[in-house]
Amino acid sequence: MTTDLLPTAGVLRAEALKALSVRTWWALAIPVGLLAVMVNLFGGLFSSAVAGVGDGLPGILLASLAYALSLTTVFAALHGVVLATAEFRHRTATTTYLLAGRVPTLLAKAAVAAGVGAAYALLAIVLGLLAGLLGQGAAPLPSVGGIVMLSVVGIVVAALWAVLGVALGTVLVNQAGAVVVLLVYVFAAENLVSLILRSGTEEGSAPSAIARLTSFLPANAGDIALYDLPARELGGRFASSIVEGLAGVAGPPPAWGALLVLLVWTGAGLAVAWVVGGRRDVT
Amino acid sequence: MGREPDGSGRIEVSGLTKRFGTVEAVRGLSFAVEPGAVTGFLGPNGSGKTTTLRAILGLVAPTAGSALVEGAPYAELTGPARVVGAVLEAQGAHPARTARRHLQVCASAVGAPEQRVDEVLALVGLIDAADRAAGGYSLGMAQRLALATALLGDPRILVLDEPGNGLDPQGIAWLREFLRGFAHSGRSVLVSSHQLAEIAQTADRLVVISGGTCVYQGPADGLHGRPAVRVRCSDPVRLAEALAARGVLEIDHVADGGLAVAADAVLVGDTALAAGVALYGLVEERADLEAMFLRLTGGGVA
Ligand SMILES: Nc1ncnc2c1ncn2[C@@H]1O[C@H](COP(=O)(O)OP(=O)(O)O)[C@@H](O)[C@H]1O
Ligand SMILES: [Mg+2]
Question: Which residue of B17, B29, B51 sits with most ligand 1 atoms within 8 Å of its CB, as the best mutation to test the pocket?
Fold first, then answer.
């Protein structure tokens, strides 16, 4: 295993050139932009989906922005997966590993994917905000501070999910397989697990320790971080139950706690990719 | 933190064993590659050449033994691209990228200056096709691009796995000259092939493997330079003793009661005369290289 672990500037540049010279990044930016526009244009639709939350609160636009960002993180992760697995799909891993080393390659890809994920989040915010202003003109505007805060959280969550995608792709290698695993996990498996974890807790009673585990799953953690601010603007002292409803968790930690949870998952994912990817025979 | 290469241009494989599940691809293989010469790495398909080369390059982890490049495992070398350039089989550029773009990306990764891209394109004769997408390349052009990539870091060692595949006869002749020139400028070349004919004129030294183990290593002309004489005579045992007394030890008793002697015909005739053995037949045959290769590798050549 290489002992020069950090990628050089040249290796970082090489990985960035590789990522930007193929269609993937902008092909995935299209649905990010479209979803951000649709979700925020029809923010009213969104608010009706969240029972008990009235129109006309400044939190509505923030909440629909947060929802758009939550969807954006999936595309950030997809980009990470494709970035990591493309090397095996096109049989370029041998060259890349020979020239740059395995660990520097992993870290450089993680950095590049994080950058692209952050850019997706920024795109979702800008387009979402414009669409929201058009579509929800009557609704009161959120504060600039709130928008900036949500943007920062969105960028961090998207970047972390992009790195998780790189880790997943590095471990699984097979591109189609890794994409399917990611989508099934984010859209089905984690919800199912959350449902099972919460099943022991009665509606209205304090969540059990097991039910609280739902907040420690990676996709839920990202959602908690994103919905925390809008929920506080919308619900005041009911903020916590709004987050519970939106993220499908019980007893959510504050946003910074949720970000920490996601950060730990990302670190763990990178560590597994480091070990598995570092030992794999490339034949 | 990485290990500094020792600048020797040597590769040292010792006791290398690699198992894939139950398949033992390489078994206790040891050899060295020295600068100033082309080392041919010869063996039939499936004999473990690719596995050995990938172990040398840190792409395959040895089950036992080691493969060191300039004194360290490849993965621990600082600036490996300046030490070794490799052209392996399953190696390529992203199909949508042009050769030039691919080389620019690779040059950045190894810290080579931009103008090195044009230099290596010229070295492998790919200037005219440099701005076409690599996905449309013929096998031969892809091989040239892989070689160009390997040369980016101006390495002291070149490792090539069956580079002749996909090259036309002119391409093979060109590559032969290139590799000989590279080696004779004091650098090292390790090149594998399953075809003796392809490598016989290129290699100075040969390492021949079969079933994952070494069956011959030494000078390339050592493999075919040994004279062999078939003798029919009145007393094979006495002749064999007399030859042994003169230091000729490689003597086989063959089926028709004669001898096969690894010595020159004049020496055999003189010895027979001195020993009082009558000769009925004396046939000098240079062991055919191909036949020797077939014998060494158990005939299993694809
Ligand atoms: N990744 C792998 N998994 C399982 N078996 C392998 C793998 N790579 C090579 N082998 C086996 O190891 C043996 C040697 O293969 P290889 O090194 O490719 O030989 P060569 O390059 O001389 O044709 C073969 O039997 C091959 O099937
Ligand atoms: Mg092979």
Answer: B51
Q: Return the exposure string of B90-125: e unless at least 16 CB atoms fall within 10 Å of the residue's CB, then b.
A: ebbbbeebbbbbbbbbbbbbbbbeeebbeebbeebe
Query: What are the backbone dihedrals phi and psi of residue A229, each rounded to the nearest 5 degrees, phi first?
Result: -65, -55
Chain A positions in Cβ-Cβ contact with residue B97 (cut-off 8 Å): 21
**Ligand 1 centroid to residue A103 C-alpha, Å:** 25
Tokens encoding A95: 């060259």
**Token digits for A134?**
């058009």
- Which residues share a beta bridge with B158? B85, B189
Residue B1 in 3-state DSSP?
coil
Q: Give yes or no for a contact between B209 and B41, defined as CB atoms under 8 angstroms apart.
A: yes
Tell which residue, B63, B178, B116, B107, has the closest CA to residue B191: B178
Interatomic CA distance for residues B124 and B26, integer angstroms:
32
Q: What is the ipTM of this complex?
A: 0.85
Q: If you ran DSSP here, which 8-state letter would residue B3 be given? A: B
- B61·A11 Cβ contact <8 A: no
Q: What is the pLDDT of residues B166-224, one digit of tens each?
A: 788 888 999 999 999 999 999 999 999 998 888 888 999 999 999 999 988 988 877 66
Q: Please tell me whether residue A118 adopts helix, strand or coil conformation.
A: helix
pTM of the model: 0.86
Q: Which is nearest to B265 in space by CA: B283, B287, B292?
A: B283
Give residue for tokens 């990044």.
Answer: A25
CA of A198 to the centre of ligand 1 (A): 50
State CA A21 to chain mean position distance.
23
Q: What is the torsion angle, in degrees rounded to the nearest 10, for the CA atoms of residue A186, residue A189, residue A190 and residue A194? A: 150
Q: Summarize pLDDT for A187-204 with one digit per residue, the tens.
A: 999 999 998 988 877 766
Angular region, B36: left φ>0, alpha ψ -120 to 50, beta rest: left
C-alpha B201/C-alpha B145 separation (Å) is: 24
Pairing of strands B64-69, B205-210: unpaired
Q: Largest Cα–Cα distance in chain B?
A: 77
Please report, to the nearest 10 degrees, the dihedral formed by the alpha carbons of residues B51, B52, B55, B56 taken in order: -150
